[in-house]
């Protein structure tokens, strides 16, 4: 067994696109725990960002600070296959409306 059998993936998405991101995660194989799939946790909050020169923002205006109602979406993913991890990350990026989505991938000591 690898030292970290799972990763904890966290992604922030606008509320308007949160279900699309959750669906993409589940379809790619994230959020599978034992005999369950599509497992995730979400929390509402406010995301802030300022698109800089050269950005192509899906929301907001270059040079102006923006606030967007977002969901923090959390899932576990197995770390055994680097190819599978890459597929899941690609699925999130393809479903996400932001040019630069905030995605965190953290090793987990215990997956359950």
What does this protein structure show overall?
This protein has a 4-stranded antiparallel β-sheet. It has a single domain, classed as 2-Layer Sandwich (Alpha-Beta Plaits), CATH 3.30.70.120. The protein is built from 2 helices and 4 strands. It is elongated, with a radius of gyration of 15 Å. The model has no long low-confidence stretch (mean pLDDT 92). The longest helix has 14 residues, at 82-95. Helices cover 22% and strands 33% of the residues. Helix 1 (18-28) runs antiparallel to helix 2 (82-95). By secondary structure, the protein is α+β, with helices and mostly antiparallel strands. The chain has helices spanning 18-28, 82-95; strands at residues 6-14, 41-49, 66-78, 103-108. The two termini are 14 Å apart.
What key phrases describe this protein's structure?
112 residues; alpha+beta; Alpha-Beta Plaits; 4 strands; 22% helix; single chain
């Amino acid at each position: 067994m690898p030292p970290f059998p799972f990763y904890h993936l966290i992604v922030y998405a606008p509320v308007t696109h949160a279900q699309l991101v959750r669906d993409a995660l589940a379809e790619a194989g994230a959020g599978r725990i034992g005999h369950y799939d599509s497992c995730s946790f979400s929390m509402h909050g406010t995301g802030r960002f300022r698109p800089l020169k050269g950005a192509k923002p899906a929301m907001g205006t270059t040079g102006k600070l923006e606030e967007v109602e977002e969901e923090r979406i959390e899932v576990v993913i197995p770390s055994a296959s680097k190819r599978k991890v890459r597929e899941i990350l690609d699925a999130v990026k393809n479903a996400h409306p932001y040019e630069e989505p905030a995605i965190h991938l953290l090793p987990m000591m215990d997956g359950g």
